[in-house]
Specification:
By secondary structure, the chain is an alpha/beta fold. Helices cover 43% and strands 17% of the residues. A hairpin with a 2-residue loop joins strand 5 and strand 6. The structure holds nicotinamide-adenine-dinucleotide (NAD). GO terms for molecular function: DNA binding; DNA-binding transcription factor activity.
Length: 220
């Protein structure tokens, strides 16, 4: 079953990387099976939600046995395209961009920042964590050469929209937007916003109004 043929709810899809990471740890520890209760405790998602999530892709745990770790892991690897390396571009190598470059996602999955862009002459032509930083003037050309269709945006907010327009023309399909700018994109493009200030405010709000245990239910 591939990610193209399988349509699962978005809320479920968002939890898959979480499940995947935990299952990988279990697998390395030599565990063969896992119960939904154990999973629930580890990933902090209630077990009814886990059972429902897993039922979408036909992994029905057996009572008293739980789920087969190998089966789930190979399923997730395929669904999340972990067998292939997905190359990603980083636009803006400042404080946040540098932190992301140093981290570079490889510990958890096969997504990697392969190239970076900036306008700062002092950075252009240098490499950081093995990734070359190119001038923005060369962005379209380099993206096409490398066949990259995902970009992480870590530039100052006022530049975010014009860069997004260029990325759209360069056939980029997905943007992980760390800037506070709300982006307008064509229908063929998907943007995920990561706004740390909003996340923090929302955590404070949920703690205040719902306490600690009900948070996951509300996210559903
Ligand atoms: N630093 C954080 O912890 C943090 C957290 C959340 C969100 N953000 C957001 O991420 C973005 C970047 O923040 P930062 O702290 O890394 O800023 P920064 O000023 O350290 O870095 C911005 C980088 O973008 C480059 N740049 C500027 N204009 C550009 C352009 N037109 N094209 C390409 N590159 C360009 C700069 O040369 C610089 O390297 C901002 O929108 C900020 O609001 C930052």
């Amino acid at each position: 079953m591939s990610s193209e043929t399988l349509k699962i709810p978005q809320a479920t899809a968002k939890r898959l990387p979480l499940y995947y990471r935990f299952l990988k740890n279990l697998h390395s520890a030599g565990k063969l099976r896992v119960s939904s209760a154990e999973l629930s405790e580890a990933v902090k998602v209630d077990s009814a939600t886990i059972r429902r999530d897993f039922s979408y892709f036909g992994a029905l745990g057996k009572k008293g046995y739980g789920y087969n770790v190998d089966y789930l892991l190979s399923f997730f690897r395929k669904t999340l395209d972990q067998d292939e390396l997905t190359k990603v571009a980083l636009v803006g190598v400042g404080n946040l961009g540098t932190a992301l470059l140093n981290y570079n996602f490889l510990k958890n999955n096969n997504t990697k920042i392969s190239v970076a862009f900036d306008i700062d002459e002092a950075k252009i032509g240098s490499t950081m964590s093995g990734v070359t930083i190119y001038h923005m003037d060369d962005m379209e050309k380099v993206l096409e050469e490398l066949g990259i269709s995902i970009a992480i945006l870590t530039v100052p907010a006022p530049y975010a929209q014009s860069i997004t327009d260029r990325l759209a023309k360069a056939n980029v399909k997905g943007i992980l937007n760390f800037t506070p700018a709300r982006l307008t994109v064509p229908a063929t493009m998907r943007v995920h916003h990561i706004d740390l200030a909003v996340e923090l405010q929302s955590l404070v709000y949920f703690l205040k109004h719902y306490g600690v245990n009900e948070v996951e239910e509300i996210e559903e």
